[in-house]
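Format notes (please read before filing issues)

Several people have asked whether sequences and structure tokens are stored in separate files. They are not. Every record keeps both together, in the order shown below: the sequence lines, then the token lines. Line labels are part of the format and must not be stripped during preprocessing.
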Amino acid sequence: MSHSTTEVAVGGAVLALAIGFAVYAGQIAGVGGAAGGYPLSASFRSAEGVSLGTDVRLAGVKVGTVTGIDLDPQSFRARTTFTVQDGVMLPDDSQVVISSEGLLGGNFVEILPGGSPFNYEAGDEVLDTQGAVSLISLLLKFVAGGGDSE
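Then the structure lines:
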């Protein structure tokens, strides 16, 4: 009888530890939860390296996450939806760029704020965008001498 009580206690402890780890991992990844914010969308020529949960940063500070990405069949562009924290008001001439953390780092969505006195509202589309730059393409152009010289 004491063995089954010990086994149940150890099993409960292991289960509680697993649930705690899953909650912690979800918070670190920014998945789930009631993260307040308002949605915006943007269309990119190339969204290479961006996926669901990718950070949205302003001045290097995470202010949101990518919540959706799909292909627009009319324009053949990657349509991305993302959230921005409540209280972070973006001027309506801001630019959204897919940036890289470095040569070996991943990509993230960067917001470059403009100077307009008017702000984006929930559900608006950011029109001024710049897609991901492929490092391999740049290296191939450099090696092949693809630069135009006038």
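For reference, the curators noted about this record: The radius of gyration is 22 Å. The chain has two helices and eight strands.
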